[in-house]
């Protein structure tokens, strides 16, 4: 890569029909790390990725991908990158093995070079023995894993994944996470978007929270939790929880958010609040450490995004 | 809109190859399907109408009506094969299966994808034209040595209609849209291009209109060659088909960029 940065985005802006979907986004990936872009639907994550891949030209800003300026030399840059798109677009006319072979051709990788790679990639994806299976008969999780294997045909330096586990069951998600960790230990750099906080917390060394086309917070998951929110959360629910929250929660916490029938109380020390709740058997509670989802909801609000 | 000229590379051939590999899986039914429709018309009209015209007429280049019709059918079937591929199959790959998007995540540009599709649709047109040529040659309706020489022209006809079809595909919201193209453009053009009857039978205004129709130029170039003669104004016919290909491809690429790279 001739000393070039793996991915560097500076001041990206992109508008559609007068609405600024990406409004000044800058971030930079360090080699070997997993970097997450988190945000509610419509935050501008996918558009940011499309800009980075040279699939749409930003209105302003500059991008360096795999040492190449994008979009000017996007084609050359993409030769060093693997992409797992948000929606599976495997080739339905081909078998699993054919999908990998045909895709390799788009990178200029010929049949012979793929002879050894195909079983290796299918094995990595947990699809050994499915070489000749048609795409239409694969389960959702299998398709996702095959898409991941397809993104590796060119042995990329950087892997870009757009919501890699959306729509998968827990077993399938854990398998994908395990594979991504293996790729990281093999030295790959990963950029992923997600709106699953556990996924981000588990995989990402650093992440950026996006909302309304901007990065509103960036850092390591632990640092974000430490920096943005009280360490303890007491969720209070059951009959009369909202009334309790408005009448009494203020004595124990400076921040108490009510969502539906549940009050989320953020505190540094949960003991006084828990003692108080002991005396209210009608209220039920859950005490837990604060997590990334709490940060996310604090920063982006609890309203629905559609 | 981004009107910079199409910039494509050899990676376009990987797109062509992808389509070829899919076609190969179903090659025999596909060729038979390509042959059936034009053959039915050719034999139905050729023998049915042809029996009313037992003499070899000068308007038919001194050949029988069925031979006249066969030479036009080679062209018309190339046009149809290219159009169907660029419209229905192209739209499936672009819009329904998102195959183009998958390809563009690799080091293949959108221009490469469109050019790959263009070459593939023209290849299918050539295949379709070849299949018909084989049948009509076997029946002794055309002159075999010259028949081989028309294949590059059949390919050029395929390129022109593939490029025009890709414009329509770039604009199409759904499959239904393609009916307009066939009903309003392809069918009238087929009738005005001398496939079924000599152009000279038409009023002067229609004959004048035919001079801008790419299919008419294809027919004018190919028919005499199949009867063993060099066509008049061959260079003009080829130039028109080439110009249609270049201009239509340029427009198709610009429209597809607007659709997919926004």
Topology readout:
The complex is a heterodimer of chains A (about 300) and B (about 260).
Chain A: E1 7-16, E2 19-29, E3 34-38, H1 45-52, E4 60-65, E5 68-70, H2 74-78, E6 81-84, H3 96-105, H4 111-124, H5 140-150, E7 158-162, H6 170-185, E8 189-194, H7 197-203, E9 206-211, E10 214-219, H8 221-228, E11 232-238, H9 241-247, E12 255-259, E13 262-267, H10 271-278, E14 283-289, H11 292-300
Parallel strand pairs in A: 3-8, 3-9, 6-7, 7-8
Antiparallel strand pairs in A: 1-2, 1-4, 4-5, 9-10, 11-13, 11-14, 12-13
Helix pairs in contact in A: 3-4, 8-11
Chain B: H1 12-25, H2 27-50, H3 65-96, H4 99-104, H5 110-138, H6 144-149, H7 151-171, H8 177-192, H9 204-210, H10 214-226, H11 234-260
Helix pairs in contact in B: 1-5, 2-3, 2-5, 3-5, 3-7, 3-10, 5-7, 5-11, 7-10, 7-11, 10-11
Short description:
The complex is a heterodimer of chains A (306) and B (262). Chain A has 306 residues and is α/β, with parallel strands linked by helices.
Structural notes for this entry:
The complex is a heterodimer of chains A (306) and B (262). Chain A is an alpha/beta fold and 306 residues long. Helices cover 34% and strands 28% of the residues of chain A. Chain A has two domains: 219 residues, P-loop containing nucleotide triphosphate hydrolases (Rossmann fold); 60 residues, Alpha-Beta Plaits. The longest helix of chain A has 16 residues. The longest helix of chain B is centred in the N-terminal third of the chain and has 32 residues. The N and C termini of chain B lie close together (10 Å). Chain B has one domain. The chains are: A alpha/beta (306), B mainly alpha (262). Chains A and B meet through helix 2 and helix 3 of A and helix 1 and helix 4 of B.
